[in-house]
Amino acid sequence: MPFFALQLASIAITIGAYLWFPTSSQWFALVFALGFCHYLLALIYSRRPMAALAGQPYSYLPVVLLLGVGWWLYDTRFPIEIYFALHHLFNEAYLKARLFPLHGDARDGASPGPLLAVFHGSAYLLLIRSQSFPLWLNGVLVAALLVSFALYLRRVAARSAHRGVAGYLNLAGFEWLNLALVPVSFYYQFDFLQVVFYHFVIWGFLPLAQQLKAGRYSSAGTYVTLTAVTLVAFAAVSPLGPLELRVPFRIYTEQFIFWSYLHITVSFALSRAHPGWINHWFAPRTPRAVPA
């Protein structure tokens, strides 16, 4: 399934879930339950990257420093909305950048990741905070949004010319949608957890889509089963579950916040959906040839 179709499906599910659970406590519980499911599955399916990381002594110090920074951010209660912004903009930018070699000649210049990172970072902040920002900051973010988008569209035009509408939407459809929502944010402030929920849903779809595309139907079935079982289990101990199973909401929330900081922090070491200068410290390195 095209990437843009997965994004649209994730947005539709997010809207449906938000409308289906009308009270704040129900909505929070649903987001947290799906988040716990996302965090657990990320650990389960990161066994290979973690094993590779354990075999790379040059990565030990960066990992220790990374975990130290993550703990400090959690301990000082650095705003999770801002920390998540890094996670979100890098994921959106560098997942999309990986599509570029599929659309045209892979030799034409640098990755569009930095442009997309600026675009998605600006869009995210405007969507969730524009009404609380001073006018000058909104102006800076809108300018960054428009300039980065214009430069990105120049890159897309050359790539999608021979791919038709479907190819164009796969590369720029989600960005156009973000751009259209920014003016709306000045009248309706989007909820931070709406973006988080979308993130959990799209990352639920992506591994499944890859498994189905590769014909690994048994793995896809296992993945769906694990997702369903863990989601039901975490929902059962949330305020959505039976009274006798519920964890106190304060504890449930605190655990979600802790695992959110940990997940974001660890993702910098395990996920390739980040800039090269971050991946460099954690990705396996090819031994250099010894000069003759």
Topology of this protein?
Layout: H1 3-20, H2 24-44, H3 47-54, H4 60-75, H5 80-97, H6 113-129, H7 135-160, H8 164-185, H9 192-213, H10 217-236, H11 249-270, H12 276-279
Helix pairs in contact: 1-8, 1-9, 2-9, 2-10, 2-11, 4-11, 5-6, 5-11, 6-7, 6-8, 7-8, 9-10
Structure explained in plain terms:
It is a single chain. The chain has 292 residues and is mostly helical. It has one domain (3-275). The protein has helices spanning 3-20, 24-44, 47-54, 60-75, 80-97, 113-129, 135-160, 164-185, 192-213, 217-236, 249-270, 276-279. Helix 2 crosses helix 10. The longest helix has 26 residues, at 135-160. It is globular. It starts with a helix and ends in a 13-residue tail after the last helix. Residues 102-108 and 287-292 have low confidence and may be disordered.
Tags for this model:
12 helices; single chain; globular; 73% helix; disordered C terminus
So how many helices?
12
Largest sheet: none
Total number of distinct structural domains:
1
The helix content is over 70%
Q: Judging from the principal axes of the Cα atoms, what is the shape?
A: globular
Portion of residues in beta strands equals under 5%
- Content-based structural category: mainly alpha
pLDDT averaged over residues: 88
Q: Separation of termini? A: 49 Å
Q: What is the N-to-C succession of helices and strands?
A: HHHHHHHHHHHH
pLDDT below 50 for ≥5 consecutive residues: which ranges? Answer: 102-108, 287-292
Strands, count: 0
Radius of gyration: 20 Å
